[in-house]
Amino acid sequence: MENEKDLVLRQQPETGESPDKDAPEGGAPSSEAAASAPLPATADLAAAYEKLRAEKEHLYDRLLRQQAELENVRKRVQREKEEFRQYAAEDLVRALLPTLDSFERALKHRDPKAPEAIYQGIEVTYRELLGVLTRAGLVAIDATGKDFDPRFHQAVETVAAGDHRDQEIVEELQRGYLLKHRLLRPAVVKVAVAAGPKNSSKAAED
Q1: 168 falls in which pLDDT band (50, 70, 90)?
Q2: Are 165 and 146 in contact, with CB atoms under 8 Å apart?
Q3: At CB < 8 A and 24+ separation, what contacts does 38-45 make?
Q4: At what angle do helices 90-108 and 116-135 cross, to 10 degrees?
Q5: First-to-last CA distance in the chain?
Q6: Could you give all domains of the chain from N- to C-terminal order, each with its CATH number?
Q7: Theoretical Cys-Cys bridge with 164: which of 74, 96, 151, 192, CB 3.0 to 4.6 Å?
Q8: Residue 175: which of 144, 132, 134 has the closest Cα?
Q9: pLDDT tens string 46-105
């Protein structure tokens, strides 16, 4: 019969000793080992951050400049497109002005021997042509009774003022026109000048 003491010892579970946490082999690193691992320097992190921030600002500035340039190009193209469309018919309208002048002269100097129906047809054609050109932007320049303006009038003759103001246009010899606020042809006019030695000699020379 076994000894009671030996029986008690055999019934107790065998327990192994826990491994040493600080052991260099087969276990997790100790807190001292983790603390001794190398860390990035704070100065290096700050320098990297400043470098990235500077690159970001540079790229953002380039983006803003390119967007502004693109918007300027878009506006310029739109403006050129509008100007081209607005004045594309300028050469055609200018070429038709002599025909318009011929109609006006024919209606102004009527031959009493000619049938009235002829002038009625001329007037209808003249008004149709003038209407088409007006819709294209043609505008007649005011001349007779206005003060002479070298921007819109071309003086080919001067006369003594008499009953007219100095520099007043007394007669329109050829009508001038604008095409949508741009001078297409100046009005050819006769201008009154005030009496005086200088103006009198100029009028005599003209």
Answers
A1: very high
A2: no
A3: none
A4: 150
A5: 162
A6: 140-206 (2.30.22.10)
A7: 192
A8: 144
A9: 888 888 989 999 999 999 999 999 999 999 999 888 878 777 788 899 999 999 999 999
